Amino acid sequence: MQDTLSSADSAELVRLWRRRQTLSPGEMGRMYGIVGEALRGCHPPELKVLGEGRQELVAQFIYVKVLRLDADPDDGSDGEAPQPRERAQHSAPSSAFALCAYFRRYLIDCTRASAFRRKLSIGDEVTDGQLEAQLGAHEDAESRLAEHGLSSAAVHAAARAFIAALDEPERLLLCEGFGQEAPGGLSGVAARHAIASYHYRAGRLGLVHKREALPTDYARTQIGRWLQETLGIAIVPDHMAAILEVFKILGAEASYS
User: Fold this and answer.
1) What is the DSSP string of 154-187?
2) Which of 30, 81, 103, 136 has a CA between 20 and 30 Å from the CA of residue 95?
3) Distance from C-alpha of 60 to C-alpha of 68, rounded to nearest angstrom
């Protein structure tokens, strides 16, 4: 691809990149414009694999990886290990080639996670009916759980304990937004209860997850840790039938709480 960044834009990109989590709205708009223009000629093969609009994927890349707008608002981090100042400055891209490489790396992560996301499709748009469709016959529920030394009764009890131990904002998001057609989805739940930073809280809980998230990433959420540490179900594709059965039970208990 041809490098479309002028020397002035390249210098401004590096300057903005180094302080990208403290940008003003105007500077965010400028960063968005520079990156979008630089990626105009970037067409990695993964774009076809993902089968989504290029413009949408570019926007998601800028939101998640460039501006880091989904970072933890409480500690200013983005979920990645902190970097020394010298390394952070060295990694600031200064050309369209470098940005295209960053973009392709993001698309590769998305591609790796796509099969997992299709099976682990939870969040504010997933209903009990969709979980039932993914699970198949209800009478197989006990056998799915028995493979992991569990019973429906044991999972119900564990789910009640998990819900009771949550902080109130997370408990409200779970009880009103998990596996239900809540008005307005998770954002509606957050608006009704004045829950600040709800998207971050929902991500930390495990109700939503980043497009490029892998099973190991989900295992670090509160629900993911509960699945692995309390129920003993490793988060791997081969265990998805049991995990989805647990989700159904968790959703049922959440609706009662």
Assistant:
1) HHHHHHHHHHHHS-HHHHHHHHHHSSS--TTHHH
2) 81
3) 10
Tokens of 83: 């970097």
In this structure, the chain runs to a length of 257
Cβ neighbors of 118 (< 8 A, separation 6 or more) are: none
User: In this predicted structure, what is the pLDDT of residue 161?
Assistant: 96
DSSP string, 7-61: HHHHHHHHHHHHTTTS--HHHHHHHHHHHHHHTTT---THHHHHTS-HHHHHHHH
40: amino acid identity, one letter: R
* Residue at 226: amino acid letter: W
Query: How far, in Å, CA of 37 to CA of 43, rounded?
Result: 13
Residue-wise pLDDT for 84-120, tens only, equals 443 444 478 888 999 999 999 888 877 766 655 554 4
Q: Decide: pTM greater than 0.90.
A: no
C-alpha separations of 115 from 51, 127, 161, 214, 215 in Å: 13, 20, 31, 10, 10
Rounded CA-CA distance 199/72 in Å is 10
Tokens standing for residue 75: 């500690």
Residue 141: φ, ψ to 5°: -55, -50
- State how far the Cα of 81 lies from the Cα of 107, in Å rounded to an integer: 21
Regions of the chain where pLDDT drops below 70: 1-3, 69-90, 112-139, 179-184, 209-215, 257
CB atoms within 10 A of CB 134: 18
What is the reported pLDDT for 166?
Answer: 94
Please report the pLDDT score of residue 180 as a whole number. Answer: 59
- Asked if 149 contacts 246 with a C-beta cutoff of 8 angstroms, the reply is no
